[in-house]
From TrEMBL:
ATP binds at Q137, G155, E156, G157, K158, T159, D565. PANTHER family: CHLOROPLAST PROTEIN-TRANSPORTING ATPASE, SECA INNER MEMBRANE COMPONENT OF SEC PROTEIN SECRETION SYSTEM. Part of the Sec protein translocase complex. Interacts with the SecYEG preprotein conducting channel. Has a central role in coupling the hydrolysis of ATP to the transfer of proteins into and across the cell membrane, serving both as a receptor for the preprotein-SecB complex and as an ATP-driven molecular motor driving the stepwise translocation of polypeptide chains across the membrane. Belongs to the SecA family. Keywords: ATP-binding, Cell inner membrane, Cell membrane, Cytoplasm, Helicase, Hydrolase, Membrane, Nucleotide-binding, Protein transport, Translocase, Translocation, Transport. The lineage of its organism: Bacteria, Pseudomonadati, Pseudomonadota, Alphaproteobacteria, Sphingomonadales. Residues 483-674 form the Helicase C-terminal domain. It holds the Pfam family SecA_PP_bind. InterPro entries: Helicase_ATP-bd, Helicase_C-like, P-loop_NTPase, SecA, SecA_CS, SecA_DEAD, SecA_motor_DEAD, SecA_preprotein_X-link_dom. It is a peripheral membrane protein. It is an enzyme of class 7 (translocase). The gene is secA. It comes from Sphingobium indicum BiD32. HAMAP family: SecA. This is Protein translocase subunit SecA.
C-alpha cells in the first residue's frame, strides 16, 4: 500500500522520496523491540526534516510504524494460529497448504497471508520433523522474509527457521536459493527439510560439487535450491559466460530465436537469497574474487623448477621481505638484481621480461615459504588440494592463480596442471547485490553490522535466545610454545575425564597439521579419540553423530565449526554437556565464537576453554612486537586471561583491519577491471 502511495508522490523531489523510502524501510523492518544497540548503527541519513512537507511525511510514517505490531506480537499471534491448525486432520491440513499457496500467488507477501503461511509451516514442520518453531524463530523468519539479517545465537535452530521465508517466498512464486558454507550442510539441510517443503507441493533441489550441468539445471528448476556460495556463484558465472553479450532479456530472446544460444542456462535468475552463516559468506569469503577459468594445454618446459631453484638461492632480508599475515613477498633492490643475474642463462622467455621474471621469482618464494603443506593444502592422490581454513575443508577443483598452483605442485613433485585462463570473475559483494531480495542469518554478525549494511544493504536484527545460555566459559590459558600447548591440551582432557566424568570433548584446531599434533599428544597420554579434518571428510557424518556421546573426544579443524550440530545423549547432558577446547584463536573472533557455540545449544549445559601458545600464528603474524614483549617480560607461565587476552584482542583487531582493507582492495580492483574491460569492449 505504501509503495503505491510512494509512487503517487511522483511529483515530490527525489530527496523527499528518499526520506520516505528510508522511513518506510524503518517502519517495515519493525526492528525496534529486538535490535541491539550496535545493530542500529547504519549510515546516518544525510537529510534533515526541515521542510513542512517533510515533517508531514515523517509524521505519517511514524504513525504507520506505531500502528504496526512488534515482531514478538506477530510471532505470538502466529503461534496461536498454528495451534488451531494442530486440530486439523492430515487431509484438511493438506487442503490448507494448497489454499495458502493460491492466496500467496494472488496476494503476494501481505502481512496477513504471511502470518497464515508461517503458522501452517510451523504445524507442518511439527508433524514432519517433530520440531515446531519457537516464537523467536518466527521472528527471525519474518526479518528474513523482509530482506533483513537475523542474528540468532549458535544452536538456536537456524536450519528450520530458514524454512519459513523459503517456503513462503517460493509459494509466492519466487525462486529461492538457500546458501550455506559447505556441501555437507547443504545436503543435510536439503534432505532433512524436504518432507516439509514437499508437503506444500514445492520441490527442493541440491547443488553440490561434482554435479554435471543437466543435474544442476534440474536442481535449479526446483522451487527452493540448497547449495554452497561457491557452487552457485560459479554457476552464475557459467551462465554469464554462456550468455556472452546477450545479457538483456530481449537480446537473449532474439538469440534463442535464431539458435545462437547453444547452451541452455543453469539458473532461473537471482530472485530471493537466504544466506546461512552470512558473516562467513559476506565478509570472510569476500576477500578474494571468484574466477572461472579454463585449463590451457601447455608444457611448462621446466620454468617452475627453475623458478624454485632460483628462489632457494635468494636470502630473506637481503633479497626479499616476507609478510606472513598478508601472505606477501617484496623483492628488495638487491633481490631484483639477484633475480636478473641468476636468471641470465635460463632458456625460458619469462626471464627476459623484467616484470615477468620478478613476478615469477616472488611467486616461487611464496610457494616455498608462505604456502605450507597440511596448513594451506594437502597432497592426496597425487594432487595438491587447497584447504579452506575457515571451513577446514578441501576446496575441490580450485587452484591458485598466476602460476602459484603449478609452483606448489612442482615443490611437491606431483603432476603439474595446465595454467588456467580467466573466463569470468566476480566478487561475492557484486554477486549477492544482484539478488532482488537478499536475506541472511548467522550467530555472529554484531561487529560487522556496519559493513553488511554498507556493502549489501542488510540490516542486522538481533533475535533473543529461546532459552538462557548455560555455557560456562573457563577462560584463556597461554603457554610459551606449541609443543607445551599440545601437552597442556592432553592434560586438560585427562583432567576433565578424571574430575567431571566422561563428558564429551571437542578440540578445535586451525589446520590439518595442528590436528595431527593434538592427536599425537592425546595418543601419548593414552586418550582414545577421533580426528576430523580434510583427510577424513568421508567419515564426517559418522564422527559427528557420535561426538555427543559420553567419553567421545574429537579433534577437528573448522570442519566441526559453523553449522555442525552435535547432539548430546541424556547421559552426556547429565554429566555437564560438551566441553570445547579451542587451541588457536582465529583472525576473527567470530570464528572462535562459532567453535565455542558447538557447546550449550538449545539450553543444554556445556563449557569451553581456550589454550593457546605465544608462538601461535595469530600473535606472530598480527602482533609480533607485543608477543616479543610478553615473551621477554613474563616469568611465570602459563598466563591466564589478563595479558593473554590483551594480546589476543590486539592481534585480532589488527587482523580484522587488514582483512577489511583486503576486501576494499578486492572491490576496488574488480571495479577497475570492470571499467577497463568495458573500455576494451569486454564488458
Ligand atoms: N523449534 C525447535 N524445537 C526443538 N528443537 C529445535 C527447534 N529448532 C531447532 N531445534 C534443534 O536445535 C538444534 C540446533 O539447530 P541448528 O543446527 O539448526 O542450529 P543453528 O542455529 O543452525 O546452529 P549454528 O549456529 O551452530 O549453525 C538441532 O538439534 C535442532 O533439532
Amino acid at each position: 500500500m505504501v509503495e503505491a502511495t510512494l509512487s503517487r508522490w511522483g511529483a515530490l523531489s527525489g530527496k523527499v522520496r528518499e526520506k520516505a523510502r528510508h522511513f518506510w524501510h524503518e517502519a517495515r523492518s519493525d526492528a525496534r523491540p529486538v535490535i541491539a544497540p550496535y545493530a542500529e548503527r547504519g549510515p546516518v541519513p544525510s537529510w534533515k526534516w526541515d521542510r513542512p512537507l517533510d515533517l508531514m511525511l515523517g509524521r505519517f510514517m511514524l504513525a504507520v510504524q506505531r500502528g504496526k505490531p512488534s515482531l514478538l506480537d506477530r510471532a505470538q499471534r502466529i503461534v496461536l494460529r498454528s495451534t488451531e491448525f494442530a486440530d486439523l486432520s492430515d487431509e484438511l491440513l493438506d487442503a490448507a497448504c494448497v489454499e495458502i499457496r493460491e492466496r500467496l500467488m494472488r496476494e503476494r507477501l501481505g502481512e496477513g497471508v504471511v502470518d497464515e503461511a508461517f503458522a501452517l509451516i510451523r504445524e507442518v514442520s511439527g508433524r514432519e520433523l517433530g520440531l515446531r518453531h519457537f516464537p523467536v524463530q518466527l521472528m527471525a523468519g519474518l526479518v528474513m522474509l523482509d530482506g533483513g539479517l537475523a542474528e540468532m545465537a549458535t544452536g538456536e535452530g537456524k536450519t528450520i527457521t530458514a524454512l519459513l521465508p523459503a517456503i513462503t517466498a517460493a509459494m509466492a512464486g519466487m525462486p529461492v536459493h538457500v546458501f550455506t558454507v559447505n556441501d555437507y550442510l547443504a545436503e543435510r539441510d536439503c534432505n532433512s527439510l524436504r518432507p516439509v517443503i514437499e508437503r506444500f507441493g514445492l520441490r527442493c533441489g541440491l547443488i553440490v560439487n561434482g554435479q554435471e550441468n543437466p543435474e544442476r539445471r534440474a536442481a535449479y528448476a526446483c522451487h527452493i535450491v540448497y547449495g554452497t556460495n561457491k557452487e552457485m556463484t560459479f554457476d552464475y558465472l557459467r551462465d554469464q559466460t554462456a550468455l556472452g553479450k546477450r545479457r538483456g532479456q530481449g537480446r537473449r530472446l532474439v538469440a534463442e530465436l535464431f539458435g545462437q544460444v547453444t547452451q541452455p542456462l543453469l539458473m532461473r535468475g537471482l530472485h530471493f537469497a537466504i544466506v546461512d552463516e552470512a558473516d562467513s559468506i559476506f565478509i570472510d569469503e569476500a576477500r578474494t574474487p571468484l574466477i572461472l577459468s579454463a585449463e590451457l594445454p601447455g608444457d611448462t618446459d621446466g620454468v617452475y623448477l627453475a623458478a624454485l631453484e632460483l628462489a632457494s638461492m635468494l636470502e630473506e632480508g637481503r633479497d626479499y621481505i616476507l609478510t606472513e599475515g598478508t601472505r606477501s613477498v617484496h623483492l628488495t633492490a638487491h633481490g631484483k638484481d639477484s633475480v636478473a643475474q641468476l636468471s641470465g642463462g635460463l632458456p625460458h622467455t619469462q626471464w627476459r621480461i623484467r616484470l615477468a621474471r620478478e613476478e615469477l621469482a616472488m611467486r616461487a618464494i611464496s610457494a616455498t615459504r608462505l604456502f605450507l603443506r597440511d596448513r594451506d593444502y594437502i597432497v592426496t592422490d597425487g594432487k595438491v588440494q587447497i584447504v579452506d581454513e575457515s571451513t577446514g575443508r578441501v576446496m575441490a577443483d580450485r587452484s591458485w592463480e598466476g602460476g602459484l598452483h603449478q609452483l606448489v605442485e612442482t615443490k611437491e613433485a606431483v603432476d603439474i596442471s595446465g595454467v588456467r585462463n580467466t573466463m569470468a570473475r566476480i566478487t561475492y559483494q557484486r554477486f549477492f547485490r544482484r539478488y532482488r531480495r537478499l536475506s541472511g542469518m548467522t550467530g555472529t554478525a554484531g561487529e560487522v553490522a556496519d559493513e553488511l549494511w554498507a556493502d549489501y544493504g542488510l540490516k542486522v536484527v538481533v533475535i533473543p535466545r529461546n532459552r538462557p545460555n548455560l555455557r560456562s566459559d573457563r577462560g584463556h590459558v597461554m603457554v610459551p610454545t606449541a609443543q607445551e600447548k599440545w601437552a597442556f591440551v592432553a592434560t586438560e582432557v585427562a583432567q576433565i575425564h578424571a574430575q567431571e566424568g566422561a563428558r564429551p570433548v571437542l578440540i578445535g584446531t586451525r589446520s590439518v597439521a595442528d590436528s595431527d599434533s593434538v592427536s599425537q599428544a592425546l595418543t601419548l597420554a593414552g586418550i582414545a579419540h577421533r580426528v576430523l579434518n580434510a583427510r577424513q571428510d568421508e567419515q564426517e557424518a559418522e564422527i559427528i553423530a557420535q561426538a555427543g556421546e559420553p567419553g567421545a573426544v574429537i579433534v577437528a579443524t573448522n570442519m566441526a565449526g559453523r553449522g555442525t550440530d552435535i547432539i548430546l545423549n541424556a547421559t552426556a547432558k547429565a554429566l555437564g554437556g560438551l566441553h570445547v577446547i579451542l587451541t588457536g584463536f582465529h583472525d576473527t573472533a567470530r570464528i572462535d565464537r562459532q567453535l565455542f557455540g558447538r557447546a550449550a545449544r538449545q539450553g543444554d549445559p556445556g563449557s569451553s576453554i581456550a589454550i593457546t601458545a605465544l608462538d601461535d600464528q595469530l600473535y606472530t603474524d598480527f602482533a609480533p612486537r607485543a608477543a616479543r614483549i610478553v615473551s621477554s617480560s613474563v616469568k611465570i607461565w602459563p598466563l591466564i586471561d589478563g595479558k593473554a587476552n590483551m594480546l589476543r584482542r590486539l592481534a585480532q583487531r589488527n587482523a580484522e583491519k587488514r582483512h577489511a582493507a583486503d576486501r576494499r582492495q578486492t572491490e576496488l580492483a574488480e571495479e577497475r577491471l570492470r571499467k577497463t574491460m568495458a573500455f576494451g569492449g569486454g564488458e
